[in-house]
Amino acid sequence: MKKKVIKILLSLFLFLIAILFKFDNLWITRVLFILSYLIVGLEILKKAFRNIFRGKVFDENFLMTIATIGAFFIEELPEAVAVMLFYQVGEFFQSLAVKKSRKSIATLMDIRPDYANLYIDGNLKKVNPDEVKINDIIVIKPGEKIPLDGIIIEGKTSLDTKALTGESMPRSVEEQDEVLSGSINLVGLIKLKVTKIFSESNVSKILNLVENASNKKSKSENFITKFAKFYTPIVVMSALLIAIGMPLITKESFKSSIYPALSFLVVSCPCALVISIPLSFFASLGGASKMGILIKGSNYIEELSKVDTIVFDKTGTLTKGVFAIQKIESVGISKEELLKYASYAENYSTHPIALALKATYNSKINESKIKNVQELPGFGVKAEIDKHQVLVGNVKLMEENKIKFKKSNDIGTILYIAVDGKYKGYILIADEIKEDAKVTIKKLKQNGIKKTIMLTGDRKNVSENISKDLMLDEVYSDLLPQDKVAKLEELINDKKDSNKVAFVGDGINDAPVLALADIGIAMGGLGADSAIEASDIVIMTDEPKKIVSAIKLSHKTMRVVKENIVFAILIKVVVLILAVLGISTMWEAVFADVGVSVLAIINALRSLKVNKEQKI
Predict the structure, then answer these.
(1) Please, what is the end-to-end C-alpha distance for the chain in angstroms?
(2) Most CB within 10 Å of its CB: which of 244, 456, 603, 616?
(3) Domains of the chain (ranges plus CATH)?
(4) Is 313 a catalytic residue?
(5) Residue tagged active-site, from 313, 431, 518, 593
């Protein structure tokens, strides 16, 4: 970058000396112009000739070379130097813009850990994170990055998660808390039991997402790339026709027609479009990462801007997924015994409901008494507890096993428990709605979302109560994972316009639905790995309001892209016509090319800026 600035300044200095000082010897002026030209143009000339031998004839390097060399031949030395000089100024602004966009993404790349402190027999050994295995113990000192996902077994601290989530507020953690790699330990020394190898860790997956994001191009980018391939040869042929055809029509000399032909070549260079469109999307990816939103490719930004229907999962998406026991009703046994059976049956589950049961039971579970545990998706759990057959689950589980029971009318998630084929009572567990869920739905409606829908496996009365509170348009309850897929498929097939359907979820059961949706959005902070992998966009915090920010950003990006296309084409068409008529000079042509490119680049960088309007 510094080298380019020095070249531009040196070339400009020689150019100004040649323009401002009237040397008696014409060759001194010519030498100054040629030196000025070579300082900024030699690199372009080399690229043009190199590309010709590689079969890439028609590109911007070729156009600049033909136009400037032609200007030298007709003794228009100042114009030749000006074209190359201002072209390099445009290239400099492009490099600057890309650097600025990359900088915001680079903050994410800084989360890559350099080492892990492996704890072996009371000693610490500094190793590569790839060498650490599951269940190994690692130590993280204050100021160090957490290299792998794990559970704290000793110590407490505060974590800086800004690079992951975009949130500046530190997160307090203590023993038994799960922590994600990529965070920075701020104060206390902690010991961590590793739960995932490095290649499967949070930091590794995020780095892969960021590194691959620019590979997935939008339709607009692909169109511009194809457009430039056909456009440039047509421009060269048109310039040739102007140079040869105009003298035949006007009866003037061939020399007089070469100048407008060269101006035509300069102005018709598609730099503004070829540079600014991809840059708009790239800047948008950087802007999103600042807010803790990972978008896996610029194609998803374009698709997101077309979304008018958003389908939500309930638990962990619109609700906190932090369950608490509200009520225990037992039949024929004590409440403590009923809770014990439920806690033992759910012992191996990591579902929030299971965690709520075990937290309330708060006694050591004798795992030797648990046998033959079966997870029944959409129904519950079946297990042998201390030689008793225990069923813990929903209404369908009781009906499926022909258990006589009394339905509860309580609002919340109800776990019915049967022991040895007999109904023993139920436990009522309630989940809280997230603080920002209500405002999210309201803001989505204000930003072009026509329909908000909730799909859930929860009971009808619970889901309808939440739906009413959040003012959702539709709700479908008592759904099994395959029912969610079928329902989403139906919603997508029913759409008769070009608008898209997005699905937002976080659980392992959401992965098939996330993959099926036009745009899959995973709540990534605490979300299941499979859901994050199946999604197109990852919200690194568990805040629904970030969906509104992502949609606003997509609308803004597409607006910038359209503005650049219209602006670039309009200015170029006007100056092209003037060039053909011989009215505009090469100076106007330079503005129409480099000037428009610089303005388009500055406009594209608006996608990088995260303003208050994009946040809620």
Answers:
(1) 37
(2) 456
(3) 2-106+215-281+555-607 (no CATH), 116-147+149-195 (2.70.150.10), 298-318+434-535 (3.40.50.1000), 324-430 (3.40.1110.10)
(4) yes
(5) 313
